[in-house]
Amino acid sequence: MTEKVSALISKVTVNSPVFQNEVFSPTLINYFFGKNGTGKSTIAKLISKPEATEWSPEFSPEDYEFQVYNEEFIQENIQSYGNIPGVFTITKQNATVKATIDKKSADLKILSDKRTAIGRKITEDNNQLESILNTLVVALWEKSEATRKMYPATQTGFTTNKKKFVAELMKHKPGSVDEDAVKELYVLAYGEGGRHYEELKSAAASTIPSTSLLGKTIVSSSHTTFSDFLNALNATAWVNQGHREYQHAAGKKCPYCQQDLPDSFEDDLASCFDEQYKKEMAQLHEFIQAYRAALNDIYSVLNGNAKSNFACDQLAAYTTEFELFMEKAKANVAQLEKKWNDPALVVELDDLSTYLHDLNELAEQINQKIRQNNAILADIPTKQKECTNMVWTLMATICQADIAVYQSENDRIRAEILRLQGEQEKAENDIGTLNDEIAQLNKQTVNTTAAKDSINALIKSSGFQGFSLREKPGAQYVYQLVREDGTIAKGLSEGERHFIAFLYFYHMVMGSQSDEGKMKDKIVVIDDPVSSMDSSALFTVASLVREMIAVCYNNYELTEEENVDDHIRQIFCLTHNPFFFKEIVYNRIAAYECVSVYEIKKQANNRSVIDKCEQDSPRVGDGKINRNPVVNTYEALWREYRTSEDPVALMNVSRRILEYYFLQMCGYSNGNIRSDLMETHRSAFETRLPDGTVDHTRYDIVDAMVSVLDVGALSFNDGLYFDASSVDPSLLKDAFRQVFDVLNQMQHYKMMMQEN
Length: 756
Known about the structure:
This protein has 24 helices and 18 strands. It is α/β, with parallel strands linked by helices and 756 residues long. The strands form 6 sheets. The chain has a 6-stranded mixed beta sheet, with helices on both faces. A 3-stranded antiparallel beta sheet has the order 2-1-4, covered by helices on one side. It has a 3-stranded antiparallel beta sheet with strand order 6-10-9. Helix 17 links the parallel strand 11 and strand 12. Helix 16 (494-510) runs parallel beside helix 17 (535-553) and helix 22 crosses helix 23. It is rod-shaped and about 195 Å long.
């Protein structure tokens, strides 16, 4: 399938109150047809705006000049008819200088191509940098996923943007990191509900008293009738215990048999125990009280420790050990109870110091964590930063192999880019030098007179009377629009004003407003140039537009013609006038590869759309062809010819009919038809008068009619300057009829003239 040729501007996006995200991809030559109010002027303005356009990668907007014809152009350039900036045209007066310019221009083209190639390679290398970076980003994002999810609080600001994450990761060097330490620090630095904790207290085993009484029997050696009786019963301890515990509650009765005790009972009982017994029992009682008090103090400490809210693994072990200690303590107390109740009994207590030693060691381990916790709480920002750096270091270590490969390739490509940039800079300097040299040479070969003369000739040939351009006296490179009496021409009609503006625009495009010549290639935008113009002016403008299009077309298919120019690198033509549209597209619309046709349509919602006008070729396998949105105007040309009596309009429509019919339909070449008419059949258009002289009027008319068929890309044929306004319309029609007669096409002529 045939593809469109890429151009400087590769894409245009149109957004405005009229258009909603309308996008088109232009090629070299672009035609737009749309009725008034559809948004043509909006499109014309946006084409030159960087925010609405995308360029092909190998081109830079800074290297090209926009030339836009619209109402703003008219206002800016034709607002003062007495001070119009001159347009410079390169002349051929100095052949030597011109040859030097051509040589330097060729060198400039080579350098420009080299610069473009270097720029393209730099772009490719930059794209490669982007590609390897994207590959790295994917790899590092995947490899770091588990770590990132484990420590999310350390990744604030890097959780969604992968490239930002990788850029940060590459700032950190790999290193040895204790992952367990990271976990603990993360909990402390970023854990919820962080608080200060009191340290656990130590329990001193030295506070627990000891005594030898537990290992000996405590008995009385007293001998009384009552003591002997109790000893015989082995009930001394039993009676003594009952007396101690119940004497106050029982009163004067025996707590066991409830009989009244004798008045001498207290004395009798006391006589059962000697002084040593009483002393040892008193010591035992004191010991038991001290032992219980020590255990109570230790319990208070240990129980307080066990109730700590500080969460750590060692606290559970501490609680278990505390419970074991209490079991042993309770068992010891029970042994003391036995000893007290039966002093003669020998008992042994468990050594509680071992358990207290273990508990104190666990308490110290817990305290270490508490102190760490409290230290962190005292400086949370610092600890969070420390934890975050540890996590990044951990991820850098995990990803270091991938980063190393990337950095090696990245360094290689950047070194290549640096080398290319050096070459690019040298090319830029050389281009600048050549441009300066060419500019100085161009100053020797440019003037404004040629452009002024050409504009005046076009004004006259198009039927406009009473005004012309002249160079302003006493000012260099300035035009004035003047009347025949030399006064500044004011009060021009809208059509005249638009016509003058377009002639000025045309010469700006084909020349320059600088005496240094054309320094940049151009992108041309033409917005509805024939507004308020009559048919004669329209024909002239159409011819000039086609000439500019021909220059642009040379960028696609350069002819062998000498001095062919291609400085118009892209062109956009917009109009609402169907006749003008047909005039400018007819000879280029078939070039599908480099020509695009668009129709702008207003929809019911008051939005406009841009439709690309193309269709399948009737030839199978030929792909797409352009479609003309305007109906065929050939019949319209003949209709205008049949009804017109305006000599200028007749001349213009005659030229167009000859173009359509003999070139497009009959297959004549430009040179052939001119040769047949003006040389082979010259006599048919000449009339010998009675006095022997020859009347060349019809010859001149036909010569002017066919001259437009032989216009080159860089010149405007003198035939367009033929002044038809003074010629009798009947003579014009007679000459036109004779062309068909001489070329044996009268049958077609009569058919189109609707003659029998």
